Amino acid sequence: MAISTDEVRLMIEASLPGAQVEVVDETGTQDHLRATVTAPQFEGLSRIEQHKLVKKAVQTRFDDGSIHALSIKTSVPD
Amino acid sequence: MTEPTLKDKVEELIRENKVLLFMKGTPDAPQCGFSMRVVGVLENYGVEYAALDVLPALQPLREVTAEISDWQTFPQLYVNGELVGGCDIVEEMDESGELGQLLDAERTEPAPQSAKQELQADDPQQSPPIQIER
Questions:
Q1: Assessment of whether the complete model's pTM goes beyond 0.80
Q2: Residue ranges per domain, chain B?
């Protein structure tokens, strides 16, 4: 099963309102994705806590096997 | 006396090893590209670290680390009793210098800047990706 990058982006945006999200398909197989997320909610959090917020947003699609791997890069807006 | 549970044992490992890596395979024979990349980063700092191969008890260890740190994918790097992160975070912190501060160590070899730029001229901040899965 695969998932569109748009769906992943929308899930992250819905979970982190105001976030800037970019999702790319790293392998062309739609199950190894890379998400770059800039969100005000990250302020003051450690990297691992930031990543947890992103992962939680799409956890259901990990659980059902749609996403095999998601690389995450997070930052706080300037 | 009750036998220590797997969770007790894992908590003890985290407490007693300043640098602890949960990985798939061993540092000499990693079984996952992401684990291999974290080993590669750690080796650059010349620090002593403990490595635990999670493959023999993958599911129970996922459950235990989910309870302890709310994180269940491997690799997982712990420093001073705290979960630092997996491959993405470790590589990002390696490049930014934060990992060196955290480990209180210097890279023994500087990052191979010239090779990096050749491989990813559009984004010199990223290490070259290694396409090995599992």
A1: no
A2: 6-119
